[in-house]
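Supplementary Methods S3. Complex input for the iron/sulfur cluster-bound model.
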Amino acid sequence: MAATVLKQKIESLPASPGVYLFKDQEGTVLYIGKAGNLRQRVGSYFQRLKEKDAKTLALLEKVMDVETIVTDTEKEALILEDHLIKEHHPRYNIKLRDDKRYPCLRLSIEEDFPTLTIVRRIKRDCSLYFGPYPSATSLKETLKLIRRLFPIRTCQEAKFSHRTRPCIHYEMDRCLGPCCGKIDRTQYGEVIQQVKLFLEGRNRDLLERLERQMAEAADQLHFEKAARIRDQIEHIRKVIEKQVVVSRDMMDRDVIGLYRQDGRVALYSLFIRAGKLLGGKGFNLSSVSLPAEEILSSFIKQYYREDRFIPEEILIPKPIPEKDLMEGWLTELKGKKVQLLFPQKGGKRRLLRMASENAEKFLHREIHLENEKGDFLSDLKENLHLRRVPKRIEAFDISNLQGGQAVGSMVTFEDGKPRKDRYRHFRIRTIEGADDYGMMFEVLLRRYRRAIDEKDLPDLVLLDGGKGQLNVAKEVFKELGIKEVDLLSLAKERRAGNLRHQGERVDEKIFHPQYKEPILLGKHSSVLLFLDQIRDEAHRFALTYHKKIRKKEALRSVLNQIPGIGTIRQRELLRYFGSVERIKEATLEELQNVPRMNRNLAETVYHYFHPS
Ligand code: SF4
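Predicted complex, serialized as structure tokens:
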């Protein structure tokens, strides 16, 4: 689209809220944004160009067309923008590479006898969630501590409802045995209340409550009980002493620090729960030259949309123009008021400084690691005679069970690190029997046909196997006209050692399309160890998926034997109970409660597993 036509198009845009998509000559979406007034916002990009940063100018140079979608409100635009970014992955939008979900604790207060479990996804249900904890280890420690301090049940629902006598936890005084009526709902509820107070950081209330109970027990001459509560109080006091209290108001807060250096940006979020610092997490946004407020807005939108814990307050280092809109959106997600604050002084300002200092340290650490990795990847290029520095490597593996249920897997390493969001599985569609080459051909063809369409080619493709696998890849690349991507295959060769005591020797051979002989590196070479790590990861990924499919099919095959239980009901039963074991243990009433089941079918399933 010529510049004048684009200008006219922008001038005729509606002055309404909506989403705009900047596209290049081929129609690829480069950037997606939202606006309260589309004409004004899109127009502002093309005014005062001298004041624009390098990245925006690079974007504008490529923009040949703009598409807009009008919405009724700005909030609708915010939601639509989010959907479209997830769909198109535009190059110029900020990408938060954080596929990891941090573990939280879930207290299932909706149950008669609640329990505490570790979860990574926060559901919008009636349970209470605490966290996130920056590492699974710290969370496991907390859970262990809680279970030591408070005798709550640890078993899952299916086990709980089928117990005829309490388990070992009861014998060890670690559980009060609600499964067998050793404690009633009210008494158990009291323990859960204590756990809640502890997790909410309301330690003073908790200690007062326990001291009251201790005095009551002593008054009633229950000295053993009173002594147990006294020990519990002592333990809790010791735990409290070790906690890092950063604010006295006991609020849940995330504090976001930002640090920029040479066009790079890092964010660091401190997690403060009930006034105590649980830890933090850094985010490296690489080269972003957008204004801080835009970076913060994008971060908040991407970070909190992913079923994560939303605290009551989020402290930010710069005011953002869409504050009210974002607060409304976050409040709706949480179901409770959420505030975005930009404190200028006092304790909250100090917290922000702490978060920014952490962002600075985090970025320096990342740069240091990248430099080391950069040198390493250049060495890799030299040692393996590649045309490009292998910044992005895609590795493939095929896993099959005597030719049946074959699966291909692809793992991606970027800048030397695994990018799990780019891992892919492929169910083999066209090949039957144990034809490894044919399967590899199918997987590579599917992957790179798509990669060409999406302009998403890696620097290096690594295959598990020898010359045969390499030739398959060469054929695929020839068919698709791919010339710029390097290819390697890595084969493990087992040989008997020369001397008896040497046993079996394993040699690793690297095959390169341009060399007849394999490249041999010393078995301690860091380059070889790195390639090994990638190959093993591809193998692990293929096997995990394979196991999952086999398990699913094995489960199905048991259920297949039951008359009247087709694929849909099998799925519902497995979804409801989670395993065939639990279906076997289910009562008639429980089976009847499963969607798409009725009394007759429930009886069929029940009698199948309990023949009289
Ligand atoms: S005693 Fe009963 S309720 Fe407690 S953990 Fe064991 S099975 Fe579960």
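The chain has a mean pLDDT of 85. The first strand starts at residue 18 and ends at 23.
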